[in-house]
Amino acid sequence: MAIKITGSGSYIPTQIVTNTDFARHQFLNEDGSTYAVPNEVIAEKFLDITGIEERRYVENHLNTSDIAFFAAEKAIENAKIDPETLDYLIVAHNFGDVRHGAIQSDTVPSVASRVKNKLKIKNPKCVAYDVMFGCPGWIEGMIQAQAFIKAGMAKKCLVIGAETLSRVVDMHDRDSMIYSDGAGATVLEEVEGTDGILAHETASFTYQEANFLFFGKSYNKDHNPDVRYIKMYGRKIYEFALSQVPQAMKSCLEKSGIPISDVKKILIHQANEKMDEAIVQRFFKLYKLTPPENVMPMNIKKLGNSSVATIPTLYDLILKGEIENQELNEGDVVLFASVGAGMNINAFVYRC
């Protein structure tokens, strides 16, 4: 038997925010002092480093659980399954439902419970729970789902990655330009065959790295210091990712027994274009090779960094023919990989 993705879906928010939309923002240094460089220069350097031209934000009336539901509906329809037959419904996120204008994260009940409710699934044996694993959350949910199936505990699982990071950014912090909103979902099933998920790798680095991403106060000293926003030590994350992610990808590929020459695509968390390119370069360098052309599809240019949603969204858009010059066909080998808050790293090898 094989454990394969039989359906996928995504939700791309309709509100487009371009780099020039940040021109009116007052960017500050961590100590609250005025940032000396004009916003136009900030935007230019930001684009050069991250590759992000625009990002998507959800409309004010929507929450993470709403867009997770939208993506889930599409994945279920694509898989042509009865949602009542799902054994597990796993939602990866980091901040729960944060209502527009609110300052608290709402995770009671869980986002997964809310999605199951919105899907109108009556079956109590469809177990719904959340995964909080930083940006690698969707991959971790997939790893857990395939473990349930391998153990005989499940036959069908729905795994969703959804986030509304626009609700937790400090608009006085230049890093706020990176983040976006979105949702992607996949149905994972036990089917006839020998393909599907072939191997996985997961690690948590917390001894020195736990607080590379954290919740901190606004750079604007006039703001309420008790209101917290997503913050990061970008340089430390960059160096960590380049030193650890390629090794994890190599270890995962070796577990699968698949030669690197057979890898058709690498779907990596869309965090930062330059960082992702450097990770893939270093990965192939471990084999004394250079990356083949078009091996790493990207959608960060238009969609930004939507955390747990970047990979399932990218996967769905490729399958739907919405990523230029990119496609996946039966038998193609794909290496999925991610890095994020924790600091967590994971990967899995998948044959379509």
List the helices and strands and how they pair.
Elements: E1 2-11, E2 15-18, H1 39-50, E3 54-57, H2 64-79, E4 88-92, H3 111-118, E5 127-131, H4 137-150, E6 156-164, E7 181-191, E8 196-204, E9 213-217, E10 228-232, H5 234-256, E11 263-268, H6 273-285, H7 300-303, H8 310-319, E12 333-340, E13 344-351
Parallel strand pairs: 4-5, 4-6, 11-12
Antiparallel strand pairs: 1-7, 2-3, 6-7, 8-13, 9-10, 12-13
Main sheet specs: 5 strands, mixed
Structural class: alpha/beta
- Lateral strand order in the biggest sheet: 1-7-6-4-5
Global morphology:
globular
Helix tally equals 8
Percent range for β-strand residues:
25-35%
Low-pLDDT residue intervals, each spanning 5 or more residues: none
- Helix content range: 25-40%
Gap from first CA to last CA: 14 Å
> What is the overall pLDDT average?
95
Task: List how many beta strands DSSP finds.
Answer: 13
Which value, in Å, is the CA radius of gyration? 20 Å
Q: How do the SSEs run, as a string of H and E?
A: EEHEHEHEHEEEEEHEHHHEE
